[in-house]
Design brief:
Elements lengths: L1 E6 L19 H9 L5 E6 L20 E4 L2 E4 L23 E7 L22 H7 L4 E7 L1 H14 L3 E10 L6 H11 L3 E3 L1 H7 L1
Parallel strand pairs: 1-2, 1-6, 2-5, 6-7, 7-8
Antiparallel strand pairs: 3-4
Helix pairs in contact: 3-4
Amino acid sequence: MNALLIVDVQNDFCPGGALAVPEGDEVVPIINDLSDAFDHVIQTQDWHPAGHQSFASSHPGHDPMDEIEVEYGQQTLWPDHCVQGTDGAEFHPDLNTTRSELIIRKGFRPEIDSYSAFFENDNETPTGLTGYLRERDIDTLFVVGLATDFCVKWSALDGRKQGFDVYVVEEATRGIDANGSVAAAWEEMNDAGVQIISADAAKTLA
């Protein structure tokens, strides 16, 4: 069975948000259209406590986009974003969430960031998504959302590592694109066996 995985379509990742992805809101109508075609829809939600380790504001002398070394490896520092209970953490108001059967909240542990829908950034702490999908006999994921070069990419790569067939719907994602990171993300996903398809093709396969 197939499922649509909607990654982090939240206010802070859309224009006007604290960590806005360029044109991030343009994915919303495309995703809404896709949602109607799938029997199973799952979402992720970035859900940070105030003072999260990934925030530049938690590291005096550092700025957003700086890189630091933490216990689990390299960490990009971000502006404060998707703080629990704030408007920025809410889903985009035009996103249709009615048909979503599961919301995976990630990044809620203060000392560890989380890009992937499957694991925290230590690559060991699971979110529980793998077990949920297997319990429901879902073996194929169609990934959409924000941002192509971070949470979409890592979710797609981890989905492949967990043994799922993974498609990413190209026009239903947007990226931050720091120093060519979007092009690199598409190449990395392609090399891992992630299939890049159009929204029309996704609806046909759903």
